[in-house]
Model the fold of this input.
Amino acid sequence: MKDSFMGQIQDGATVYGSDGEKIGNVSEIGPNYVVVSKGIFFPKDIYIPESAITDTADDGLTVDATKDSIEGMGWDAAPEAAPDTASAYERETAATGQTDVRASDGERIELREEQLQAGTRPVQTGEVRLSKDVVEEEQSIDVPVHHEEVEIQRTRVDRPADSADAFSEQQVSVPVMAEEVEITKEPRVVEEVAVGKTAHQETQQVSEPVRREELDVEHEGDIAPASDRTRE
Done:
């Protein structure tokens, strides 16, 4: 079953995780593994062993890992192949011409290149906190107050004195009043602060090295140089 899986895989095939999410494309096929090249989502090449391939189809292959977990599977190097597997692979590639493609009349060779595909995900870039502190300051207000002052008025008179009160001590008391300031404090709401968020869109340029295949033409024998035409 595994041999049939490896025989059905094509270079450039789409690789899907066990959750159905696309992981990448096959950039290299080994005797017992396939390679998904590094790019935006992976910092290094991923060597998926043959044992992790669970299914193949016309549109690609499925592996026993998700896109989020594949980096932690330890597939950062090519797995060792059994001697018989490696020999069979070498014989197959030599027979099919994967390492040395010689095109006869009507034969074609496909040239591939990597193209960048970008997506976005939300990440926290910062945080705003609102808090309030109690501070003390000196405040002054003007308060009108009243007070009484004593006025003494003397009026000259000329009348007979009462003999009972004549030449006796007498005392008169007059209360003098004034207002005193009393201070009370009343808490009042003087301001409200509301916090909200607005989304803005901007364009960011990202760069990543990509690979492409170039055609090398080798001439053997006494032949005219091959013409190179591009058809749309």
User: Anything to note?
Assistant: The radius of gyration is 49 Å. Residues 97-105 have pLDDT under 50 and may be disordered. The longest strand covers residues 22-29. The first helix runs from residue 2 to 8.
